[in-house]
Amino acid sequence: MSTPTPHIGAKAGEIAKTVLMPGDPLRAKFIAETFLEDVVQFNSVRNMFGYTGTYRGKRISVMGGGMGMPSIGIYSYELFNFYGVDNIIRIGTAGSMNENVKVRDVVIALGASTNSNYAAQYCLPGTFAPIASFDLASAAAAVAKEKNINAVVGNILSSDTFYCADQTATEKWISMGILAVEMEAAALYMNAAQAKKSALCLLTISDSLITGESLSAEERQLSFTDMMEIALEIAE
């Protein structure tokens, strides 16, 4: 077998110790071409593009993770367990569920509540709380403060459903102080915990479930800058 997994075509040593992981593989391509130098593509399997390059002398990889917990669950598991990756920083978009979290704000996901059954595989005698690496989260908060980036730290929701049949679900999560909703972080945090590795989810608010405000596709791309500055600065 020339590569360690059926989903990632990289050979040993081609992926850096820290991987930035947007959901969209085309966004991974954009990040590599925009922010990194001496870029080499290491994956194109299933068009889930992955690249390794340098940022201010630091070796960093960026790779798409797909949509939903089953997708990021596969890729993050393989990166942690077969490629020796130590840190994965998810960089994505989210919908605000808090009136104080505005469109274009950055959310540092300290915890990831979920309606997923992903943790059932561990057969735990209770409920597992998926949380970020404290070191990565605290470093992200410090960088945001230093750069005057409006960042909010707290609990998010990783949802298995984008279109939810339960019309009362949003209000219930809001009542528990959830800041924003996305679809991947909980699985990433659980995989990191089991592998004894580090993970963080940084999110740019692209729309608000409170006000109905939303960004266009072009505005989403441009609004990524603050989040990318944080992620690149804390990458080791």
TrEMBL record:
InterPro entries, sorted: DeoD-type, Nucleoside_phosphorylase_CS, Nucleoside_phosphorylase_d, Nucleoside_phosphorylase_sf
EC identifiers of the protein: 2.4.2.1
Official protein name in the record: Purine nucleoside phosphorylase DeoD-type
NCBIfam families according to UniProt: deoD, PRK05819.1, PRK13374.1
UniProt entry keywords in alphabetical sequence: Glycosyltransferase, Transferase
Family: Belongs to the PNP/UDP phosphorylase family.
An MF annotation (GO) of this entry: purine-nucleoside phosphorylase activity
Source organism (scientific name): Clostridium rhizosphaerae
Entry binding sites for a purine D-ribonucleoside: 7, 182-184, 206-207
Protein role: Catalyzes the reversible phosphorolytic breakdown of the N-glycosidic bond in the beta-(deoxy)ribonucleoside molecules, with the formation of the corresponding free purine bases and pentose-1-phosphate.
Annotated site (Important for catalytic activity): 220
Subunit structure, interactors included: Homohexamer; trimer of homodimers.
Keyword Signal: no
Residue runs in coiled coils: none
